[in-house]
Amino acid sequence: MLRHEPQPGRLLAGIALVTAAVLYTGDAVSAWTAPWWALFPLVCGGLWLAAAVGLFGHLWRRRRRRRTEGGVNGC
Q1: Under a CB-based contact definition with an 8 Å cutoff, are residues 20 and 42 in contact?
Q2: pLDDT tens figures, 5-24
Q3: Helix 39-69 crosses helix 8-28 at what angle (to 10 degrees)?
Q4: CB atoms within 10 A of CB 62
């Protein structure tokens, strides 16, 4: 079975967007009241955090890949 590389940035983006969807679905069915402006900090903050984590993960994978391609003695 082929393994995929983990991408935690995409996971965080999905969590932020699903949280926003649940928040406004609850507001639509009158389960609770959500202010109209709550979507912007939640989505924007979640996407910025996901971008930062995604960039860090990309750099970490690139560094790890470069280290393993160096050969046996690490050159």
Answers
A1: yes
A2: 888 999 999 999 999 999 99
A3: 160
A4: 10
